[in-house]
């Protein structure tokens, strides 16, 4: 069948050369190229007519993510570290929180979750929410504030964030100071710079033992990556 296919293409090529006035030498070279192309298809092992050889996808590169000082939960030396770059005004970041919690619930002794901040420019209230989470973390209530913010991301004005701080019983004077501090702003800027360095331009972006998993993907995608890491690979991050 391939020989017939080559012959048919040769006939077409000959006709094209005749009508366009191509020389015989030029036509011969075109026929030779066609034969080389068919030879490459054969070497690729194409099975049924029209089938293409499957190419295995390359594994995601392992990147070193700086998590020093970042809030984390789960075992400090868990076999799998899930680093999340988040934006509190991003609906996809909110959507994926249940998936992350499920991973932690199903692997309480193996999975550690780390959060870093990447408020996007299209979300004007996201930087303030990140500041509130960091300020709450200074009083040991980062994860509680994290949860409260995602519970209603439509209410992220400064007064809304202060109300959450009161609900958590925070020292409000200290909260206000930490919320407005240069140190808090530097933490966010450093996280954003880290996201850019790693190529995490959108949110949410996850690095699972240093390998990127982008977006609010289904639980199965996270589970597959975690199971792969638990299957004997070296711990990263």
Give the topology string: H per helix, E per strand.
Answer: HHEEHHEHHHHHEEH
CATH superfamily of the largest domain, please? Glutaredoxin
CATH architecture of the largest domain: 3-Layer(aba) Sandwich
The CATH class designation of the largest domain is: Alpha Beta
Spans of at least 5 consecutive residues with low confidence: 1-57, 233-237
Taken as a percent bin, the fraction of beta residues is: 5-15%
Description:
With about 240 residues, the protein is α+β, with helices and mostly antiparallel strands. It folds into 2 domains: about 1-45, no CATH class; about 70-230, Glutaredoxin (3-Layer(aba) Sandwich), CATH 3.40.30.10. Helix content is about 50%, strand content about 10%. It has 10 helices and 5 strands, in the order ααββααβαααααββα. The chain has helices spanning about 1-20, 25-45, 90-95, 95-105, 125-135, 140-150, 160-165, 170-180, 180-200, 220-230, and strands spanning about 70-75, 80-85, 110-115, 205-210, 210-215. Strands 1-3-2-4-5 form a 5-stranded mixed β-sheet. A hairpin with a 2-residue loop joins β4 (about 205-210) and β5. α1 (about 1-20) packs antiparallel against α2 (about 25-45), α5 (about 125-135) packs antiparallel against α6 and α5 (about 125-135) packs parallel to α7. The two termini are about 55 Å apart. The model is unreliable at about 1-55 and about 235 (pLDDT under 50).
């Amino acid at each position: 069948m391939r020989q017939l296919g080559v012959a048919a293409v040769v006939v077409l090529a000959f006709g094209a050369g005749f009508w366009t006035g191509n020389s015989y030498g030029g036509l011969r070279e075109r026929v030779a190229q066609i034969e080389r192309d068919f030879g490459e298809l054969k070497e690729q092992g194409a099975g049924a007519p029209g089938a293409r050889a499957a190419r295995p996808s390359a594994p995601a590169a392992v990147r070193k993510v700086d998590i020093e000082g970042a809030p984390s939960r789960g075992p400090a030396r868990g076999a799998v570290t899930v680093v999340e770059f988040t934006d509190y005004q991003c609906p996809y970041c909110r959507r994926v929180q249940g998936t992350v919690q499920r991973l932690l619930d199903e692997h309480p002794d193996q999975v550690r979750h780390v959060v870093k901040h990447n408020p996007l420019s299209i979300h004007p209230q996201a930087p303030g929410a990140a500041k509130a989470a960091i300020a709450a973390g200074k009083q040991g209530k980062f994860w509680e504030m994290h949860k409260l913010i995602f519970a209603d991301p439509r209410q992220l004005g400064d007064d809304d964030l202060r109300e959450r701080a009161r609900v958590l019983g925070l020292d409000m004077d200290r909260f206000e100071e930490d919320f407005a501090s240069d140190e808090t702003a530097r933490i966010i800027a450093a996280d954003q710079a880290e996201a850019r360095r790693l190529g995490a331009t959108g949110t949410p972006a996850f690095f699972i033992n240093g390998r990127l998993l982008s977006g609010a993907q289904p639980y199965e995608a996270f589970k597959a990556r975690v199971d792969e890491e638990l299957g004997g690979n070296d711990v990263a991050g």
